[in-house]
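Course assignment 3, question 2. Fill in each field.
Student: A.L.
Task: Predict the tertiary structure for the chain below.
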Amino acid sequence: MSAIICVSDLTKTYASGLQALKRVDLEIRRGEIFALLGPNGAGKTTLINIVCGIVTPSSGTVTVDGHDIVTDYRAARAMIGLVPQELAITPFETVEQTVSFSRGLFGKPANPEVVEKTLKDVALWERRKSKIVTLSGGMKRRVLIAKALVHEPEVLFLDEPTAGVDVELRQEMWQVVRRLRDAGVTIILTTHYIEEAELMAERVGVINNGEIVLVEEKNALMHKLGRKQLTLQLQQPMSAIPERLSPYGLSLAHGGRELVYTYDTKAERTGITGLLDDLSAAGIGFKDLQTTQSSLEDIFVDLVRGGR
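Answer field:
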């Protein structure tokens, strides 16, 4: 699949001396949903703002479908829709006026049908005559999404798009995102709701301290770095783990009523058979067992800690 965004050797150092990005290389594939994860201050928003032409890079290049963001700014920016974190909207205009004006900013002719479809996609058509100041925080967030979509971009950046949005509306928004992806729009999202990235994204990038830690297919990442845990519900509570079981790195949970064994999914041998044999030999009985796979959030936390 061809790349629609190419970031090469990108750096950004602010006047204060803060180096927000350090030689970042990244390619975003056409038509994918890409999740960019990282802790606060990692460089996510700086990277997005540079691609969108809001912040000037210190060095390096960025192209959007072959258009350089510096030398061919207008063509590059016209391909991008951006939903920022901040709710910066003119308060006393109506929803319809605000969204229609955004389309005009990109030199697109007035098209009431596109405006109507966009507002219906984000469930705002019934509030089109309402002034922004009368809307809830969640509705204002939807206005931002409509503003980003109304000029029919090929790339959509969603910077924490569901912050402050209730669960039902969040699900509606992700249905919109899926429809856009199915229509061929490339979507890059940052989110603190890592379960959303796990649910939606096809690839995941992790940024920390201004550097890309990794870029990986989501499923491959979870298979490669994921852990599984075997939890044994004991017949009798334990106060301590016997010395003979120390090689397994076991831990006690729920007041000694559960024994937890963490193993590597990549290993040729999980060690479970040996563990069960040694438990039996030690006279430790269990009444049930279950396994759980580590989540994308677990993997993300481990990666960020490892980079510090």
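Instructor remarks: The first helix runs from residue 44 to 51. The chain has a mean pLDDT of 85.
Grade: pending
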